[in-house]
Design brief:
- There is one protein chain.
- The protein has about 400 residues and is α+β, with helices and mostly antiparallel strands.
- The chain has two domains: about 200 residues, Naphthalene 1,2-dioxygenase Alpha Subunit, Chain A, domain 1; about 130 residues, 3-layer Sandwich (Rieske Iron-sulfur Protein), CATH 2.102.10.10.
- The strands form five sheets. A seven-stranded antiparallel sheet has the order 13-19-18-17-16-15-14. A four-stranded antiparallel sheet has the order 3-4-5-10, with no helix packed on it. A four-stranded antiparallel sheet has the order 6-7-8-9, with no helix packed on it.
- A hairpin with a 5-residue loop joins strand 8 and strand 9.
- Helix 1 runs antiparallel to helix 5.
- The C terminus is likely disordered.
- Bound molecules: FE2/S2 (inorganic) cluster and fe (ii) ion (FE2).
- FE2/S2 (inorganic) cluster binds next to loops.
Length: about 400
């Protein structure tokens, strides 16, 4: 749907500051280099704590971070082969979350049916991704497409970021090209004009025309003459829940968003820059150049954004009824998508399980209904999602599916 690009006054719906996520997407949880073979670490996707481990063969596994014996956090344990051993009594879990060993149980005795939820997990673009929603949907949900990742002509700069703010505030910052006032000299371009805006249920695409003049036009190779004004298009595509923003042939930013809690968000971004150097030189300089650009240019830029985003969150928390005015229709469109995606998830998860899947195995595994607290946090209390591990233990051994000893 094409939307008007006129800047007009509209009231912000404060509900967007309280909304939950649609978990039926892939979310980034760590840089691949943060987790070596044989290591385990805790990660959080919208209040679901997950023990992420890489087995000794290098394969990734993601289990709910609560041992089904007594609830001890599994990330405190250790990796042995392809198993994760709980730190307390040493119960052993495989990558599917099934208890496959208890060190003090006599050999002839059958294991209890104890199981912890497991999550689909993948490594892509040097990032580890988890699918926190309905596992049956994981295969059909695509990852963001990042063609520059395998193209040696682009310099890649990984950008980590943490914000003490709701993900809607962070997402609006990325869509909002009009805050160039904040970045002043760091930004390079001026006079942004919204020229095109499209929205669907899951996507907002905005194009802004921006102007360059001076040394920046020459540095970026936009023009030989620095004294003339050159215009370029900045395209910003929000495809729930991640971003791609690009400046025609000069740079491209893939911003992968991780909502952690109602007022805490992380991002794992990949910035690609067209650097005018021979490939062999670029390859040699790559690690150094990438760190230099991050440390001395992009980090300053990001710090300025973080300060604004966190200030916005604090004012909101001080008075949730305060009214705000927005004039950029792209921000209003973005808010609609964020709310719509959450509503879509609520609708899907309120249907009976047999309406959600035709797969006969659907009822055998802990489903997305175990994670209802992914929902809206508008209620008084914030429900932390740790599916009750007791519910996952079936003491009737006869009902235990796939019991390795049964
Ligand atoms: S609490 Fe995990 S093995 Fe006992
Ligand atoms: Fe910014």
């Amino acid at each position: 749907m094409e939307l008007a690009t006129t800047l007009t006054s509209q009231t912000v719906q404060n509900a967007v500051r309280e909304v939950g996520i649609n978990p039926n997407y892939w979310y980034p949880v760590a840089w691949a280099s943060q987790l070596q073979a044989g290591q385990v670490m805790p990660v959080v996707v919208w209040q679901q704590v997950i023990a992420l481990y890489r087995d000794t063969n290098g394969n990734l596994h993601a289990l709910e971070d609560a041992c089904p014996h007594k609830g001890v956090a599994l990330h405190k344990g250790q990796v042995q082969g392809d198993r994760l051993l709980c730190a307390y009594h040493g119960w052993e879990f495989n990558g599917e979350g099934q208890c496959v060993g208890i060190p003090y149980l006599p050999k002839e005795q059958k294991l209890p049916c104890a199981r912890v939820r497991s999550y689909p997990v993948r490594e892509k673009y040097s990032i580890i991704w988890v699918f926190p929603g309905d596992t049956h949907l994981a295969e059909e949900i695509p990852f963001p497409d990042v063609p520059e990742f395998d193209d040696p002509n682009w310099l890649m700069v990984p950008i980590p970021a943490r914000f003490q703010a709701h993900f809607s505030i962070c997402n609006e910052n990325t869509m909002d090209v009009f805050h160039g006032f904040l970045h002043k000299n760091l930004q390079g371009w001026f006079n942004p004009v919204l020229i095109n805006l499209q929205q669907t249920d899951a996507e907002v695409c905005a194009e802004y025309q921006v102007s360059y003049q001076g040394w920046m036009t020459k540095f970026l190779g936009l023009s030989e003459q620095g004294d003339q004004v050159t215009t370029r298009t900045v395209s910003i595509r929000y495809r729930y829940p991640h971003y791609n923003s690009s400046l025609e042939g000069v740079s491209s930013l893939y911003l992968m968003r991780l909502p952690v809690a109602p007022t805490f968000t992380q991002s794992f971004s990949l910035m690609f820059l067209k650097v005018r150097l021979p490939q062999w030189l670029l390859k040699a300089l790559d690690p150094w150049l990438s760190k230099f650009i991050w440390r001395f240019l992009l980090k300053q830029f990001l710090d300025q954004d973080v300060e604004m985003i966190e200030s916005e969150q604090q004012t909101y928390l001080g008075n949730r009824q305060r009214r705000y005015v927005e004039i950029n229709p792209a921000i209003i469109a973005l808010q609609r998508v964020i709310i719509r995606q959450y509503e879509k998830f609520v609708q899907q998860s309120s249907q009976p399980p047999n309406h959600q899947h035709t797969d006969s195995q659907a009822s055998e595994e802990p489903s997305v209904s175990d994670s209802q607290s992914i929902g809206c946090v508008a209620s008084d209390s914030i429900r932390v999602n740790r599916a009750n591990p007791i519910e996952l233990i079936n003491l009737d051994e006869g009902n235990c599916k796939g019991d390795p000893k049964g």
